[in-house]
Amino acid sequence: MEYNREPCPWRIMDDCGGAFTMGTICGTLFQSVIGFRNAPSGIQRRLFGGLTAVKNRVPLLAGNFAVWGGLFSAIECSLIRYRSKEDPWNSILSGALTGGVLAARTGIPSMIGSATVGGVFLALIEGFGIMTTRLHADSFAQHNQMYEMENLPEFHGLPPKARIGFSGAPINTEVPTQMNGNGMEVDRISKGR
């Protein structure tokens, strides 16, 4: 479940604007290179060719990205409302349905192919996200387990001068112990003087 996303009615506009921005930036980069390479020789002609390709093709590309992002979010919000839960299956089904709907003018076989590609693509993205989350969660759990109180070594048999605090400095035995919030005695750590 993603907690950093907007609630569903506003998510559609947010994703639509984000997709438009991504289409504009990526389209500008790609079309400027393509226009520069396909222009006649001469640096001025090549720069002008790149600028012309950007002006001609980027608005269409950004609009297509915005339509895809808006339709994807609208279908995802509908699935969240219909299924009453937010899980990766909503994104996978949204990708498949978006691919199918956008290919509707080209016929049934094209719709099935686009829906399959959209579903597989979103399944790969969601699977990678789940895998990354689990890897980080396991790493975090191991890190926390290292610092639990049961795993700390016992200092009862050691003389006070041999005990070392967390900062690596010897514990000052002249300072009386204090009580922490849990009612446990805590030795104050000296600054190594």
What would you note in describing this structure?
The chain has four helices and two strands, in the order ααααββ. Helix 1 runs antiparallel to helix 2 (43-83), helix 2 crosses helix 3 and helix 3 (88-102) runs antiparallel to helix 4. By secondary structure, the protein is mainly α. Helix content is 65%, strand content 2%. The protein has helices spanning 8-38, 43-83, 88-102, 108-146; strands at 178-179, 185-186. It is globular, with a radius of gyration of 29 Å. Strand 1 and strand 2 (185-186) form a beta hairpin. It has a two-stranded antiparallel sheet with strand order 1-2. The mean pLDDT is 79.
Task: Briefly say what this structure is.
The protein has four helices and two strands.
**Mean of all residue-level pLDDT scores:** 79
* H-E string: HHHHEE
Q: By helix and strand content, what is the structural category?
A: mainly alpha
Strand content: under 5%
Terminal CA distance reads 51 Å
| Low-confidence regions | none
Strand order of the largest sheet: 1-2
Give the helix level as a range of percent.
Answer: 55-70%
Number of distinct beta strands: 2
Number of helices: 4
Biggest sheet, open or closed, and with what strands and sense?
A: 2 strands, antiparallel
> Tell me, what's the shape?
globular
- The radius of gyration computed from the alpha-carbon positions, rounded to a whole number of angstroms, is 29 Å
